[in-house]
């Protein structure tokens, strides 16, 4: 059932309203007195999950026993990141999820189900995994906090994904990511009902009595007419209705359907949020459906320091590079190291333009020209690109440059999906 619900394309939820909505939402945990919160990490800083988690602690006090950021394969949060994103939640409450070691398998979904929902694109079963602390019996409620936004792996982010991928293990993350990549992310992004979502919903059904009751708190964020990022929706509940409402609103406010394709796009990656192509390639994922054949995507990435968030995945990206899906599938067939890391293989497929348009990275000092070009991207000097494309002056959307060049600017690719009306409707 729903415990709090507010949102529309016109809505702007203020701090004062948010405080009341969190209080309403917490009715969903009843008398639970040993609660664990599962919010996102710093890569979702714009979700307002930090403020919500702080409010949860402010309401529950000692009843909030732990906070487990759902980092998935991302690097653990630093103390500085935790203090910045969660300033009013005690640092000692935070746990670290290790996707390779801290896992319990709760059930297994047979391959027949995966084949059916995926249209036969893969043939394997799926392990329902979560961090062992969630199933330890130590906690009597889980509060899962996050943002619903178009997503390249699952279609729309969050809800069950936050548990089974965000606190999942290597096999589950590998298989969910590769299912989405093999099915085709352009058929999934911005859609609430996808093969991966059906798998995650099935996982939730199977483990409903093996995990504590889960209260889902979901936000929808978007820019208003003045260009300010605001909260458009807040939904809290104990079933899938809150996700369905959030996804419907996100589809309204986070998907920009253009009348024409983009010949040149410029994307800015905030250095505080994007330090790897594993995360920064949202610039590719979220704009690819709008890019014209033969066009160019220029990614300004001053914080870029590595390719993968994990050293093992970083090594695989450096070895194989961002190639076409056909090439990556062949690499998977012939190479055990990539076959045993299907999330990396999926990422390599996601990060390719399939030869349809050019991808140019302009990184800071963390990555060299040789490194960028070695993985299949073009390289540009950041200072030169920033001089040519002044991100402080450009507005989101179409811009005409002083030399008459027309470019499409995206200040943060994590906050939306850009496509043409023709391609999204296909």
Radius of gyration: 21 Å
What is the number of helical segments per DSSP (H or I, 4+ residues)?
A: 17
CATH H-tier superfamily of the largest domain: LarA, N-terminal domain
Mean pLDDT: 95
- Helix amount: 25-40%
Distance between the termini: 34 Å
CATH class of the largest domain: Alpha Beta
Low-confidence stretches: none
Q: What does the largest sheet look like?
A: 6 strands, mixed
Care to count the β-strands?
Answer: 18
Second-tier CATH architecture of the largest domain: 3-Layer(aba) Sandwich
Indicate how many domains the architecture comprises: 2
In short, what is this structure?
The protein has two domains: 2-253, Rossmann fold; 257-424, LarA, C-terminal domain (2-enoyl-CoA Hydratase, Chain A, domain 1, Alpha-Beta Complex), CATH 3.90.226.30. 33% of the residues lie in helices and 23% in strands. It contains 17 helices and 18 strands.
Task: Outline the structure in words.
The protein has a six-stranded mixed beta sheet with strand order 1-10-9-6-2-3. A six-stranded mixed beta sheet has the order 15-14-13-12-17-16. Helix 1 crosses helix 2 and helix 6 runs parallel beside helix 14. It is built from 17 helices and 18 strands. It has two domains: 252 residues, LarA, N-terminal domain (Rossmann fold), CATH 3.40.50; 168 residues, LarA, C-terminal domain (2-enoyl-CoA Hydratase, Chain A, domain 1, Alpha-Beta Complex). The model has no long low-confidence stretch (mean pLDDT 95). It starts with a strand and ends with a helix. The longest helix is centred in the middle third of the chain and has 14 residues. The chain is an alpha/beta fold and 426 residues long.
